[in-house]
Design a protein that fits this description.
three-stranded mixed beta sheet, alpha/beta, eight-stranded mixed beta sheet, Rossmann fold
Length: 295
């Protein structure tokens, strides 16, 4: 059965995000239509948006994403989050709440006591559980329309490309420089941009890196002379810094997916919350948002 008639029947009039009136569809209605029509929740939401009926879970996002067209674009995107700790757990949750249609979750680690201070997916009851599986369970409770592809394994040169194929963008939430460089190499082969983020104590950094851009060596120096782990192993990480940097990574990913605003491309945003400063540093030769080099 086609859902169009049911969507029209179940949609209700409500106050518009632009002070008018619009037709909205509740989560309950989406689930009912999916059950009757043997469709996924995502398929019902796509059909609703195509009919300019707003799934109410996204109502407060409409003014930001550009209305139904922007939300449709997000639902049709596939985004990978590699590393599901302090950064990645929150990144995955924010992407799910925004309605990014397919999330690829990559992490082979398990939760330990030391994760509880900052990792949103970590709970006392979940100690010892696989981070990827725990993230998938939480995201299913938040947005059942988001499809998940779960890899409860560590990335290696032998499996990473297979996990990232078909992604629109990758979010780098790793803590090992060698794995970051491996990710960059893979993204270059697959021609996928990635959003880099790193944290330590009161400090954080964010950058958007396209395959043809200077990349991580412009941040960390030559890979053969880079230390394996960043300064966070010495300085530690509080609860707040990962939340800040993860939010900024998601903002960059959304701008990239929606093709809006000025990306942190060719630039590194450095955050010092101790001093209350945000600074941008040019990375090598400038690269504009449209892919051409600036001399």
């Amino acid at each position: 059965m086609k859902p169009a008639g049911l969507i029209k029947e179940k949609a209700r009039e409500t106050i518009d995000y632009k002070n008018g009136a619009y037709r909205g569809l509740s989560v309950e209605a989406v689930r009912e239509i999916a059950s009757i029509c043997s469709l996924s929740l995502k398929e019902v939401e796509v059909a609703a948006l195509e009919a300019e009926v707003i799934p109410l879970r996204y109502a407060r996002s409409m003014g930001t994403v550009g209305g139904p067209t922007g939300q449709l674009l997000l639902l049709r995107c596939r985004v990978a989050v590699i590393g599901l700790g302090g950064l990645g757990g929150l990144v995955a949750e924010l992407l799910a709440r925004m309605g990014v249609g397919t999330l690829v979750l990559i992490d082979g680690d398990i939760f330990s006591d030391s994760n509880l201070n900052r990792q949103i997916m970590a709970t006392e009851a979940g100690l010892g559980l696989q981070k990827a599986n725990a993230a998938a369970a939480r995201l299913s409770e938040i947005n059942g329309a988001v499809e998940q592809v779960v890899f409860a394994q560590f990335a290696t040169p032998h499996n990473l490309e297979r996990m990232l194929v078909g992604c629109t963008v990758v979010i780098d939430c790793l803590d090992s420089l060698s794995t970051r460089f491996m990710l960059e190499d893979c993204c270059r082969r697959l021609e996928i941009p990635f959003v880099h983020g790193a944290i330590a104590q009161f400090y954080g950094q964010v950058a958007v890196i396209y395959p043809e851009d200077p990349g991580l060596e412009a941040i960390y120096g030559p890979r053969d002379r880079s230390r394996e782990y960043g300064i966070e192993k010495e300085l530690g990480n509080p609860a707040t810094t990962p939340a800040l940097v993860a939010s900024l990574q998601v903002q960059e990913a959304l701008k990239l997916l929606l093709k809006t605003g000025q990306l942190l491309r060719g630039r590194l945003l450095f955050i010092d919350t101790l001093q209350g400063t945000f600074e941008t540093v040019q990375l090598g030769k400038g690269v504009n948002d449209h892919g051409s080099r600036e001399d």
